[in-house]
Q: What sequence folds into this?
């Protein structure tokens, strides 16, 4: 027998990935209670400026902000085919004395657009707190492993050494740049305000009998009552859709940073140097029981691609709006903005989970260093040998020949790298075994990496998250 509960499509962003907190921000309850808060703010502002609205009417509206009669609204929308008017009427059914002043002078975009801004603002604040926690995890990881040498890679080919901690600062720096973008966007978020059908405020000018100052004051009052400093100076029927693009660009930036970080983790896990958390009963592959796939990092990468692609939607919407407005933004916005936020919420939560439990395999890291370090150490050995009277050009040629022999031995014969032994046994270098081996300490090749980690954390990372330190300490249990 078919279970009807599972007979329709279920959005995996809600069912599998994002948090309840983020899902709530884009829920009907949050949306329509915000509409009602906006109607209360409008009525309060109009009353304060002389419109005949009573305290009793406003109290009645306030008493019914959250107990939304969804069933009634759905029935009415079937008849009127208009979502805002269906909720005006449904609200009026609960507020008999106030039903005549709900939405007075306003157009649909008054509740729709202002709520969209508020939802994005609240969602950005939630993203910010989680991002700070992720950055703090990387802070702890970078400091813990600041002195642990590891092969650097350029072009995914072995390069000069860095440290495990220094590499983590590269991930953290990208995320701090994203945090700065979030801060800027939150600090500069504006409402659409009280603007009327085409942005001219004509209906409100009529309501206040031509008093321009009262119209301006109403706009200011509503913004303040909703917790905002200002609204956009001008609008058509809607706020500029440029804002939607700017907000999703921030999410795209986070997705780019997360994708890069988790690509690095996946590569390092393939090298068996670093591993994301792997639970006791977790199955890596249905066929290959030994596998430990980096599925959390892969999930981040997958959702990150989705966010980056989704950020194109508001760009297209903004570019193709007609004059004071056209409705080809509406269906797109209902999908792209909430889903981009839910996906962003998911990748940061998974990122917190991953960075809470990263495992570093220092023995494997040292094995890879020892395979490559002989080639890298030759420049230091060459300089020391020249100081002792050796001819640089002759010694350079000897090292070149030995390097080719060692490379053939490693690649063609599958044997260990014997380059240093070849140099030790050559009297041309005038250095003892002990002197040559002392040059081979990996910490001689990491430059200022440990100091850079400490300086980065103290001078850049800590100031970036200081404001939010009371909200640090988040742990994430993934749904799947």
A:
């Amino acid at each position: 027998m078919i279970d009807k509960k599972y007979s329709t499509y279920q959005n995996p962003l809600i069912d599998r990935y994002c948090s309840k907190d983020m899902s709530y921000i884009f829920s009907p309850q949050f949306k329509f209670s915000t509409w009602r808060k906006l109607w209360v703010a409008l009525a309060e502002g109009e009353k304060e400026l002389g419109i005949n609205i009573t305290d009793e009417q406003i109290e009645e509206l306030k008493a019914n902000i959250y107990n939304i009669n969804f069933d009634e609204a759905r029935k009415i929308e079937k008849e009127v085919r208009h979502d805002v008017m269906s909720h005006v009427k449904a609200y009026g059914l609960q507020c008999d004395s106030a039903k005549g002043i709900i939405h007075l002078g306003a157009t649909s975009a008054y509740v729709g657009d202002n709520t969209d801004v508020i939802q994005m603002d609240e969602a950005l604040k939630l993203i910010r707190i989680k991002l700070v926690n992720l950055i703090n995890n990387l802070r702890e990881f970078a400091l813990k492993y600041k002195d642990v040498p590891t092969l650097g890679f350029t072009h995914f080919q072995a390069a000069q050494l860095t440290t495990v901690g220094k590499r983590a600062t590269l991930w953290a720096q990208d995320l701090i740049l994203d945090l700065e973008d979030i801060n800027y966007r939150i600090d500069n978020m504006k409402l659409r305000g009280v603007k009327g059908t085409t942005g001219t405020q004509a209906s409100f000018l009529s309501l206040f009998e031509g008093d321009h100052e009262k119209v301006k004051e109403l706009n200011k009052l509503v913004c303040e009552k909703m917790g905002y400093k200002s609204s956009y100076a001008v609008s058509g029927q809607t706020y500029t859709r440029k804002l939607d693009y700017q907000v999703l660009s921030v999410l795209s930036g986070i997705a780019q940073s997360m994708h890069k970080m988790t690509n690095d983790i996946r590569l390092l896990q393939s090298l068996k140097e670093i591993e994301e958390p792997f639970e006791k009963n977790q199955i890596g592959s249905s066929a290959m029981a030994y596998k430990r796939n980096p599925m959390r990092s892969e999930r981040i990468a997958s959702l990150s691609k989705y966010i980056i692609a989704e950020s194109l939607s508001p760009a297209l919407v903004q570019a193709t709006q007609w004059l004071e407005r056209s409705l080809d933004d509406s269906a797109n916005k209902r999908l792209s903005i909430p889903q981009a936020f839910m996906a962003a919420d998911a990748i940061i939560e998974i990122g917190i989970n991953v960075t809470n439990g990263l495992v570093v395999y220092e023995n494997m890291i040292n094995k890879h260093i020892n395979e490559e370090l002989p080639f890298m150490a030759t420049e230091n050995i060459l300089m020391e040998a020249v100081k002792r009277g050796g001819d640089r050009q002759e010694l350079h040629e000897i090292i070149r020949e030995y390097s080719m022999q060692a490379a053939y031995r490693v690649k063609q014969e599958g044997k260990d790298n014997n380059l240093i032994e070849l140099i030790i046994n050559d009297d041309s270098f005038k250095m003892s075994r002990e002197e040559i081996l002392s040059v081979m300490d990996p910490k001689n090749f990491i430059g200022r990496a440990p100091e850079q980690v400490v300086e980065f954390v103290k001078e850049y990372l800590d100031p970036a998250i200081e404001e939010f330190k009371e909200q640090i300490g988040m742990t994430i249990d993934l749904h799947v």
